[in-house]
Amino acid sequence: MENDVAITLGFPQGGTKIDRRTKGAEDTTLLEDWKAGLKMDDLNITPMQLCKAMLAYKEGWEWFKRHLALLITTMFLESTATGYVNTYMINNFADVTKIADLNWCEYVLRSLVDSKVAWAKKTSQKFTGPIVFLTVFYVDRLVVYRRSVPRTFLAFKGWDTHLLNKREKAEISSGGFGYGYIDDPQELPYLNEEKKSDECEEELQVTSTNTMSCN
Fold it and tell me: 97, 69 in Cβ contact below 8 A?
């Protein structure tokens, strides 16, 4: 399943698990520095406000990368019921050189499960899970009649608002959501390369063995 996230969104599958801070049990030093840098007294900042604040970081630097990681977290992993930026994972971005070493794919799946459980208990509240992944994964894997949108890697690159609207209308006219057939998952390109490399190595071994036998 982690591969499905990587194929859909292109997130890293690093070896470090993403931790979610809990109130009262976390080191808030980085969080306080974040607030101070944005000249905020609280955590009530919207993604749009954070985007505007990022424009001040002309050279990039560490805080630009942390801001970007927080935006990606909020938009693709786990949003908030209030609509503000999700800061619960900020301590994972203390060392910006290790952001790619985090297992973003695993957290998307963890967030999906946790948010579904929370939403099921109170369906009137906002669903805060990875809705972009859920939507694109659904339209990529479930085919209605025939595949009208060519598959791409990454999967989300093949879909835009117009195509998603057309897909929604097609499903409604066909009788509802979930009708169709489930297509096979795509394979990650680097896994294909590893597979080809293994096959090539096996062929070389067979050829070498046959050659030695002939001699």
Answer: no
pLDDT 10s digits, 55-111: 888 777 899 999 999 999 999 999 999 999 999 999 999 999 999 999 999 999 999
Please answer whether residues 122 and 164 qualify as being in contact, where contact means their C-beta atoms are separated by less than 8 angstroms: no
Distance CA 97, CA 1 (A): 26
The number of CA neighbours under 13 Å toward the Cβ of 126 is 10
Q: By CB neighbour count within 10 A (0-12 exposed, 13-18 middle, 19+ buried), where does 6 fall?
A: buried
How far apart are the C-alpha atoms of 92 and 129, rounded to whole Å? Answer: 19
Spatial neighbors of 131 by CB under 8 A, at least 6 apart, are 79
CB 8 within 8 A of CB 136: yes
Q: Look at strands 142-143 and 181-182 and give their pairing.
A: antiparallel
- The percentage of residues in the chain with a pLDDT greater than 70, rounded to a whole number, is 86
What is the residue-wise DSSP string for 136-186? HHHHHHEESSS--S---SSGGGG--HHHHHHHHHHHHHTTSTT-SEEPPPP
- Give me the residue spans of the domains in the chain: 2-121, 131-182
pLDDT at 58: 78
Torsion sign over Cα 39, 41, 42, 46: negative
